[in-house]
Each structure stands twice: as C-alpha cells, then as structure tokens.
Amino acid sequence: MSNVAQSPDIFEALAERVAEIVLARLPAPAAPEPDGFMRVGTAAEFLGMSEAAVRMACKREVIPCHRIGRRVLFDRAELREYIRSGRAT
C-alpha cells in the first residue's frame, strides 16, 4: 500500500479519464423549446392531450388560450405556468 500512497497522480489521472468517458457517453442536452404562440395541434402535443380535449378545455376556460376571430392560439409560457401551478391534471 505504500506504493499507492506515494503516487496519488495515478488516481487523479484515472479519475480524469473516467470523467471523460462518462461525459462522452451522456446524451447531448436538448435544445430549449422556443417561447411563442402555438396552434391547437402543437399545444395538444405539448400537453399530451388530444386536439379535441384541448379544444374542449379551451372552450370551458380550463386552460389559458387566446382567440383571434375563429383562430385559437396558446402561449407556450402560459401553458408551462399552467402545468407548474398544479392546475393541470
């Protein structure tokens, strides 16, 4: 054991190599989702719901949405807040 105690550089080099290998195997970080408005289909995918369920929730004013004429839009930031607030079930 005296040889081991005398050469801590070996352990540091080994630790650095292990860290390199682990980092190389980690998946690349996902790109952040852009903020902005979404249509019903994209909002449904974002929320993991069907388009019909999203339309019904919007009609019942359960989820935040914006109407421009007949068009319904969803703000991604508002939907994230809706989910984080615990109102989403």
Provide a descriptive summary of the structure in words.
The protein has a domain at 37-84. By secondary structure, it is mainly alpha-helical. Helix content is 55%, strand content 11%. The model has no long low-confidence stretch (mean pLDDT 86). A 3-stranded antiparallel β-sheet has the order 1-3-2. The termini are far apart. A hairpin with a 2-residue loop joins strand 2 and strand 3 (71-75).
Describe the structure concisely for a colleague.
The chain has 89 residues and is mainly alpha-helical. It has five helices and three strands.
Keywords:
single chain; 89 residues; mainly alpha; 5 helices; 3 strands
Secondary structure layout:
Blueprint: H1 2-6, H2 8-25, E1 37-38, H3 40-47, H4 51-59, E2 66-68, E3 71-75, H5 76-84
Antiparallel strand pairs: 1-3, 2-3
Helix pairs in contact: 3-4
What is the averaged pLDDT score? 86
Main beta sheet: strand number and arrangement? 3 strands, antiparallel
Terminal CA distance = 59 Å
- Element-by-element helix/strand order: HHEHHEEH
Number of helices in the DSSP assignment:
5
